């Protein structure tokens, strides 16, 4: 199926440095392109749930034992926990592999803590809905009602409903997202005051996953309740459910520290990394055992029992913010993961080291949770999670019928409307991180059968999945379950589109022409090559003259223009290269985003003068060459240098390298 789909998106988003507390984001080592071959899940034939609604635990255990150990070994993952609940009970909770490779400590499903990443958001959203139920928060009131500082949207106020559905309209914020030094952790109230993202979309219009939005909601929980966020969660969520081995606190309380699983980049590393500190804590700071996550799933499957009234739980599970037809929608905190015609909601979560998924089969009273303690190799955590979800669903909740729908006659016309380059709505817009939206733009193409493909949706072999139109602007995967859907504006242009997998929290929107990588990247490549050749041939020509005893033919103003034009050609390369090196270095380790490199950022921002100095030199060189007795080649090359300098300025502007400030 589409096991590589998430790995491909992960590789793209990995360049954004969004692993911590993100929605389905990087579980792949960005330094590697290899893909891991997973074993086929045994017994793919459907095994419907028993008449009582309880899956046979013996069958489930056998099925998992045939898949998980080998999958973890192939993916170089140290350990995993899987918990399945059904009919209000924990049906299976089992550890695979090691909690600590060095000591050989195994995983205890009752007491070993894993980090579920952004699944923590479900704790925060449950707390919000408790206060909504108590009448202390209005989902549709301006959130500034609950704050002693102001956050703004574009055109309209931001509400708690917008935060719950990831539609406040903010750009991505990655500064201090995750770190290892607890001494650098900002208190929650300071973080939300000092890191307000730029508003780029009208509130309520475009889904764009926001860790900051959940952190702000957690702060509002504290403001409204009169308790710290951690105290509120301990008292109102963990205690009522008996979740004794769970905490949102960072570092962990002393009595839980010895129960925490180590986290690894690769299981074979042998030595665990430090406990990760998630600065927007309500968005991803949770540590919990498998049993405790089972208790949380049971509460929501039992109409909120112990946490929410049945009416509030139903509101949370069913209120859909559906931006596109025929694909999954964002609910109030949860998002749809429907498959085989069954109603499924849940959430994914990733830190740098831990990778998790939670699924609730609402109509069957069944919950599935998996968490892994290593990033592994070749995108293995994402592929294992997706394979587990698809295999579990297909085995125990198969489709009642499979209808083959014909391809519409409008397939060619509508497909051509989608062809082109796009940007992801969840992205930075106004700083150096925006370069990732230029360097990794997804694209839509169409084949001769009028089937479309999205470049980042691929099969296990890396081949893009194919989709055919089965409803107006709705495309079904050929021989698969994934869907694409698009929204068209009044002018007949694509406004946004997404896949069922991404649609709840992320859209693809057409890229502006001046940021279109299909145009700009080839031009920037030619420009950089021309400038580099100029720089390289300067010493080469000098060596040749020296070797053959040839005098330097230029003098006066023309000699000065020649020398300065060579120096000027170097300046844009130094500026762009410096930014690309710094950005790559910062993104390769998320804890480098904690402010320690602010000095380097300020230096590179000051270096913005370099390409403009180069432009002045290039303009003067054109004037000198064209008003003097230069050769036709010198005149032509002076224009090439001027054009190349302008293109490099265009490139760094589109990449966000001319933006100042330390909010990113």
UniProtKB/TrEMBL annotation:
InterPro entries: AmpC-like, Beta-lactam-related, Beta-lactam/transpept-like. Residues 1-19 form the signal peptide. Keywords: Membrane, Signal, Transmembrane, Transmembrane helix. Residues 72-380 form the Beta-lactamase-related domain. The chain crosses the membrane at residues 519-540, 561-582, 602-624, 636-658. This is FmtA-like protein. It comes from Glycocaulis albus.
């Amino acid at each position: 199926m589409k096991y590589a789909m998430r790995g491909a998106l992960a590789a793209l988003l990995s360049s954004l440095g969004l692993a911590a507390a993100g929605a389905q984001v990087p579980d792949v080592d960005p330094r590697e392109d290899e893909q891991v071959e997973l074993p086929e899940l045994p017994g793919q034939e459907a095994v419907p749930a028993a008449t009582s609604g309880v899956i046979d635990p013996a069958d489930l255990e056998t099925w998992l034992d045939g898949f998980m150990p080998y999958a973890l070994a192939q993916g170089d993952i140290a350990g995993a926990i899987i918990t399945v609940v059904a009919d209000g009970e924990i049906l299976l909770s089992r550890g695979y592999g090691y909690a600590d490779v060095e000591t050989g400590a195994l995983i205890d499903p009752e007491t070993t803590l894993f980090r579920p990443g952004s699944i923590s958001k479900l704790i925060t959203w449950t707390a919000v809905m408790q206060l909504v139920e108590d009448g202390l928060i209005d989902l549709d009131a301006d959130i500034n009602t609950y704050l002693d500082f102001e956050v703004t949207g574009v055109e309209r106020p931001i509400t708690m409903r917008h935060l719950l559905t990831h539609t406040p309209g903010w750009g991505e914020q990655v500064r201090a997202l995750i770190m290892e030094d607890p001494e650098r952790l900002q208190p929650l109230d300071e973080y939300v005051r000092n890191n307000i993202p730029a508003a780029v979309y009208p509130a309520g219009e475009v889904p764009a996953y926001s860790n900051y939005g959940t952190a702000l909601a957690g702060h509002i929980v504290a403001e409204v309740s009169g308790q710290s966020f951690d105290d509120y969660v301990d008292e109102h969520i963990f205690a009522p459910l008996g979740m004794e081995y769970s905490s949102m606190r960072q570092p962990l309380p002393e009595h839980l520290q010895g129960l925490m699983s180590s986290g690894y980049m690769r299981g074979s590393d042998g030595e665990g990394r430090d406990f990760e500190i998630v600065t927007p804590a309500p968005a991803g700071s949770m540590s919990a055992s498998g049993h405790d996550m089972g208790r949380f799933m049971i509460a929501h499957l039992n109409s909120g029992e112990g946490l929410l009234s049945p009416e509030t739980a139903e509101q949370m599970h069913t209120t859909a913010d559906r931006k596109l037809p025929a694909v999954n929608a964002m609910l109030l905190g949860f998002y749809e993961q429907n498959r085989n015609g069954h109603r499924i909601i849940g959430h994914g979560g990733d830190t740098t080291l831990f990778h998790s998924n939670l699924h609730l089969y609402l109509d069957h009273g069944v919950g599935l949770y998996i968490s892994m303690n290593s990033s592994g190799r070749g995108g293995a955590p994402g592929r294992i999670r997706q394979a587990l979800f698809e295999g579990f669903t297909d085995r125990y909740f198969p489709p009642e019928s499979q209808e083959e729908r014909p391809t519409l006659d409008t397939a060619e016309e509508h497909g051509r409307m989608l062809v082109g380059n796009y940007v992801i709505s969840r992205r930075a817009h106004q700083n150096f991180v925006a370069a990732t939206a230029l360097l990794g733009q997804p694209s839509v193409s169409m084949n001769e059968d009028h089937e479309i493909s999205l470049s980042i949706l691929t099969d296990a072999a890396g081949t893009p999945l194919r989709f055919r139109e089965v409803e107006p602007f709705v495309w079904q995967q050929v021989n698969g379950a994934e869907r694409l859907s698009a929204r068209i504006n009044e002018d007949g242009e694509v406004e946004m589109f997404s896949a069922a997998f991404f649609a709840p929290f992320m859209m693809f929107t057409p890229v502006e022409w001046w940021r279109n990588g299909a145009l700009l990247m080839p031009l920037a490549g030619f420009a950089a090559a021309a400038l580099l050749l100029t720089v390289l041939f300067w010493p080469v020509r000098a060596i040749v003259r020296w070797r053959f005893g040839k005098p330097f033919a230029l003098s006066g103003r023309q000699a000065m223009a020649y020398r300065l034009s060579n120096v000027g050609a170097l300046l844009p390369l130094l500026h762009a290269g410096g930014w690309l090196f710094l950005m790559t270095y910062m993104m390769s380790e998320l804890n480098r985003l904690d402010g320690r490199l602010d000095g380097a950022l300020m230096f590179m921002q000051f270096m913005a003068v370099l390409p403009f100095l180069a432009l002045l030199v290039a303009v003067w060189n054109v004037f000198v060459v064209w008003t003097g007795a230069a050769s036709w080649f010198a005149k032509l090359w002076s224009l090439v240098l001027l054009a190349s300098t302008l293109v490099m300025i265009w490139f760094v502007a589109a990449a966000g390298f001319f933006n100042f400030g330390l909010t990113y």
